[in-house]
Specification:
With 410 residues, this protein is an alpha/beta fold. Helix content is 28%, strand content 30%.
Length: 410
């Protein structure tokens, strides 16, 4: 039996426009009295149907809306259908001659599957859970993905940012042919993928997020186009995806800075791998310098007016709306320092992956940075996440990755 949930007057407008999140403060009543997490039919105080969703009072978002069709039969079959439709929308990535074999299959609420981030890496699928809904329907999604794609392995983990707040297990789980298996992490071999002519070796189970930032695919290719003959700095380089594209594009040199020494060692390994395969020019290894430590502090120590091109791709600085003000100050300071290190006419490729920071706010921050650095900044390109990470217009939070290619004039 579905719950009947009534939304308070004045709280229904965004929901009628298909925004999928409902917090507890927007709910007027629940019938019958809450027992366990379950499906719910959602109405306005006037009795108008809004949507069908999943209610779980233990989640920090207690109600996720999933269908605005009053006749929809929600349940396991419905969730499996949503997963299947998400995969089918990515069918162009499976075609012969595709430039990559690593891409996102399910992008959370943008695909109407809250808390599911599902990526494919060659024959391996990785699932990161960030909601109790995703945890509840994991088996159904695993079964559907296995039926459609027959992966060699499905690896499931929880996003550490949400593990405690959602009360989810932090255990990594493994599925083969939709059955859960016990596996030793050190026995799982790395996966080699190909993206736009570059080879990457992805750890079997460890790594940031799902092990590789697929969402930057298009932006790496754009950065490559600006690299020829330039002295480059890659800040927060991780395992060197931007570095590799800068080298492929003919950079004169690349200095990669990251807080993880192991990530930087893997960066050098991948430079060797791609040079050996002829994917990047011979002699690329001699063009790379690595430096580990606090990226923001190390950037300050760099010489002014030194670089022709800087890639600035910091971690999420605004994790919530409450932390936005401090994050904006941090983004402003970081970009100001980067602008000071760039030669006249040089290029800054800068990003924010904070969903709480809007694109307009990020542009405003960059204008403040330019003013404080006493430079002029021209926007040459506006950057976003790849098409396998779609932005749902009714859910602006799905536009989390924002970037610009700037020309810095002094």
């Amino acid at each position: 039996m579905n719950y009947k949930i009534t939304i308070k007057d004045g709280k229904e407008k965004q929901l009628l426009r298909h925004h999928p999140w409902v917090f507890s403060g927007a709910i007027k009543s629940i019938e019958p009295k809450f027992d366990i997490a379950s499906w719910a039919d959602v109405y306005t105080e006037k009795g108008t149907f809004i949507a069908k969703g999943w209610y779980d009072e233990k989640s920090h978002i207690v109600l996720h809306l999933l269908s605005w069709d009053e006749k929809e039969k929600v349940g396991l079959a419905f969730v499996k259908r949503l997963a299947r439709e998400a995969v089918m929308r990515r069918r162009s990535f499976f075609r012969k001659g595709a430039t990559t074999n690593a891409f996102r299959l399910i992008h959370g609420e943008a695909d109407s599957l809250p808390g599911f981030a599902v990526d494919v890496y060659a024959s391996t699928i990785r699932i990161i859970l960030s909601s109790r809904f995703a945890s509840a329907f994991l088996q159904a999604v695993v079964e559907e993905l296995d039926s459609l794609l027959h992966p060699s392995l499905i690896v499931v983990s929880s996003d550490p940012q949400y593990t405690s707040v959602e009360g989810m297990s932090s255990k990594t789980r493994y599925f083969i042919s939709d059955e859960e298996k016990k596996m030793a992490e050190d026995k799982i071999e790395p996966v080699t993928i190909l993206e736009n002519g570059i080879y990457y070796e992805i750890p079997g189970t460890k790594g940031q997020k799902s092990g590789f930032y697929i969402d930057q695919r298009d932006n790496r290719l754009i950065a490559e186009g600006y690299a020829e003959g330039r002295t480059c700095l890659d800040i927060c380089s991780y395992t060197g995806a931007f570095t590799l594209h800068l080298l492929k594009g003919g950079a004169e040199s690349v200095k990669a800075i990251d807080s993880s020494e192991s990530a930087l060692r893997h960066l050098l390994y991948q430079v060797h791998l791609n040079e050996d395969k002829g994917a990047i020019p011979a002699g690329s290894r001699e063009k790379v310098e690595i430096l580990s430590g606090d990226c923001f502090e190390l950037l300050r120590t760099e010489e002014k007016d030194k670089y022709d091109l800087i890639v600035l791709d910091p971690p999420k600085l605004a994790k919530t709306k409450g932390s936005l003000e401090n994050a904006m100050k941090a983004y402003k300071d970081l970009n100001r320092v980067a602008m000071e290190k760039i030669k006249d006419g040089g290029i800054l490729i800068t990003f924010s992956c904070s969903g709480a920071l809007s694109r307009e706010d990020f542009k405003t921050v960059l204008s403040w940075s330019a003013k404080d650095a006493e430079v002029e900044a021209q926007i040459l390109r506006t950057l976003s996440q790849g098409e396998d990470h779609p932005i749902r217009l009714s859910f602006p939070e799905s536009e989390y990755l924002k970037g610009y290619v700037l020309r810095i004039l002094k």
